[in-house]
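Retry 2 of 3 after timeout on previous attempt. Resubmitting structure tokens to design endpoint.
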């Protein structure tokens, strides 16, 4: 019988178990703590990297999926502008469910990254970084701006974004930033140059 490894559910993210799935769909759970250290060293890193997002795919959404992506935004309580037909929407799908969305919008001739959202159960597993990488791959060779929450500055910096001040922004984004700050939102302006 041939076995393939797959990551186990989120309750085993800490690397305490490894699931082995047989072709007949029987799953055997092996406690990593019972294995010799040299085997743990071989399998534990891959378990941490994969966790539940092993089956999650990052892809450019088809226009027919925009309504589902918008429904996902609504379920997250996202208050930004609705998805437009000319947006480039990147989604994270686990099985057939959307578990993450981000998009690139062309506003006043400027590319803006907006609406990065990850379903709560899929956070802190690297999925946000994968989704951001998928978005950056769509940017191409032009400047791109975003207005993330302050605490996410380092997250966006890993994808090449750097902090900019209001005067360095296109007027419409400087106005949006000012309105967010006036509402008490702790956001910052960032730019990614080619």
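Retry 2 succeeded. Sequence:
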């Amino acid at each position: 019988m041939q076995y393939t490894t797959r990551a186990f559910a989120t309750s085993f993210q800490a690397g305490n178990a490894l699931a082995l799935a047989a072709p007949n769909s029987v799953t055997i759970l092996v406690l990593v703590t019972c294995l010799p250290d040299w085997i743990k060293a071989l399998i534990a890193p891959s378990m941490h990297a994969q966790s539940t997002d092993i089956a999650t795919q990052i892809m450019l959404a088809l226009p027919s999926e925009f309504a589902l992506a918008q429904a996902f935004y609504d379920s997250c309580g996202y208050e930004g502008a609705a998805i437009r037909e000319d947006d480039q929407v990147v989604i994270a799908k686990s099985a057939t469910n959307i578990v993450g969305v981000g998009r690139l919008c062309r506003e006043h001739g400027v590319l803006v990254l907006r609406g990065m959202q990850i379903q709560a159960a899929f956070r802190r597993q690297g999925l946000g970084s994968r989704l951001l990488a998928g978005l950056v791959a769509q940017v191409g060779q032009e400047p791109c701006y975003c207005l993330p929450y302050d605490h996410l500055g380092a997250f966006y910096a890993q994808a090449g974004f750097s902090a900019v001040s209001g005067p360095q922004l296109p007027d419409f984004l400087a106005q949006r930033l000012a309105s967010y700050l006036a509402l008490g939102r702790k956001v910052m302006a960032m730019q990614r140059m080619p």
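Attempt log closed. Helices lie at 37-50, 66-76, 127-139, 153-157, 171-182.
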